[in-house]
Amino acid sequence: MKHFLLTLLFVLIGNFAIGQNNREKALELGQKAIKIMDHGKLDESIGLLEQAQKLDPERMDYPYEIAYANYKKENYPKAIEILNTITEHKAVTDFVYQLLGNAYDFSGKPELALETYQKGMLKFPNSGKFHLESGSIKYHNKEYNEAIAFWEDGIKANPNYSSNYYRLSKVFSLSEERIWTLLYGEYFMLLEPNTERTKEISKLLYENYQKSYEVLTDSTGQFHLTEKGFQIVVQDKKDLKKINKGILPFEGTFASTFALSALHFQNNINIASIYEARKNFLDFWFDKKKFNKDYPNKLLEYQKEIQKNGFFKTYTYWIVSQGNPTEYQEWRSENEKKFDDFADWFSENRIKISQKDFNSRKDYK
Fold first, then answer.
1. Is the per-residue pLDDT at 239 higher than 80?
2. What is the 3-state secondary structure (H, E, C) of 50-108?
3. Which tens digit of pLDDT belongs to each residue from 298-328?
4. Of 106, 156, 173, 172, whose CA–CA distance to 133 is shortest?
5. Half-sphere exposure of 243 (CA within 13 A, CB side)
6. Is the pLDDT assigned to residue 112 strictly greater than 70?
7. Separation between Cα atoms, residue 97 and residue 181, nearest integer Å
8. Which residues pair with 221 in a beta bridge?
9. Alpha helices, H only, 141-173
């Protein structure tokens, strides 16, 4: 959850005249309240916010922050009471419905939480927050397919909201469909490149590249990226055409291409070998086999763009850096200039995903 006042409200302070009025006083009180709230002084923060609300009763931010402080105090009934007074406010945002649903969930009322998230989806159809929270409730109830469905719907609602990718990458790592850990996890890192969760997923990606390969002999092995990807279900004439052309489902095509790209894995799966496999994969996918025409994918297109700009090796070392920190640091210490150039390029060329892009498992069904 986030504070409104720091991110949305206080940038307006400079627009007021120097002479103080009620709104200015309210803003100052609110700013002070947020600072002390972040230092754990919740009751004192609530007192300041209540003063601010009296000075400027039309703003939604103050009751929201009061509710948030009560939420942090685990006084969920009070948070619910306050939030229910602002759900129809003209300036209401998706954060209000998210916090309200979370308060219901933590107070032991998951059905009311799900109902609140559903209302949020209807009011804010382009927000992925409610799918995230709904999926979390389903996951905790061990309704895993329902959880995955919510998170993947969340990707389609807001493909640039990172948290749904985060949950999906973790849950698929527990399945035989590791391909989606690799894809969703990399999407997540591109959208959220500098947090503790980024380090977690970087390590997860490395581990899943390793787990995907089973050594059979000194010179042979086999990949386990997908099971469903090799099962062709005929539903219409398009599926029949694919069979006649010898085209597997997306997952099977991806897995087969990666297997061809990583013949050198054998017993030595490290960052260097992962890079070679990924590089070979892009060459097969776009240039030799042209699978991108049958199966467009925003992430793979972005990888190709990185490759064309000469940064794909640096990018790959960063993506899986936390799986083998020693190898990564040794490489980076010898390639600091390359990494700096990539960082500059990346900051100016972040991935931008639209709802029309193919990036979710559901796009290929």
1. no
2. HHHHHHCCCCCHHHHHHHHHHHHCCCHHHHHHHHCCCCCCCCCCHHHHHHHHHHHHHCC
3. 999 999 999 999 999 999 999 999 999 999 9
4. 106
5. 11
6. yes
7. 29
8. 215
9. 144-157, 162-172
Question: Which helix (H) or strand (E) covers residue 221, if one does?
Answer: strand 221-223
Q: Please provide residue 223's backbone torsions phi and psi, each rounded to the nearest 5 degrees.
A: -100, 145
**Does residue 4 carry a pLDDT above 90?**
no
Query: Hey, what are 211's tokens?
Result: 């787990």
Burial class of residue 364 (count of CB atoms within 10 Å of its CB; 0-12, 13-18, 19+): middle
Residue reference for tokens 């719907």: 153
Half-sphere exposure of 50 (CA within 13 A, CB side): 9
Predicted local confidence at residue 193, as pLDDT = 97
* Widest CA span in the chain: 80
* Amino acid symbol at 126: N
pLDDT at position 21 over 70: yes
Q: Rounded distance, CA 262 to CA 224, Å?
A: 13
Instruction: State which amino acid sits at residue 132.
Output: L
Q: What is the pLDDT of residue 135?
A: 98
> Tokens 């990226």 — which residue?
225
Euclidean distance between CA atoms 15 and 27, whole angstroms: 12
What's the average model confidence in pLDDT over 283-289?
95
Read off the tokens for 127.
């927000």
In terms of DSSP H, where are the helices of the chain? 4, 22-37, 42-55, 61-72, 76-83, 94-106, 110-123, 129-140, 144-157, 162-172, 178-191, 196-211, 237-245, 250-261, 271-282, 291-294, 298-308, 312-319, 325-334, 336-348
Mean pLDDT for the stretch of residues 164-188: 97
Q: For the whole model, what pTM was predicted?
A: 0.89
> Which tens digits make up the pLDDT trace of 72-91?
999 999 999 999 999 999 99
**Residue whose structure tokens are 């640091």:** 329
DSSP, collapsed to helix, strand or coil, labels residue 136 as helix
What pLDDT does 260 receive? 85
Containing H/E element for 213? strand 213-215
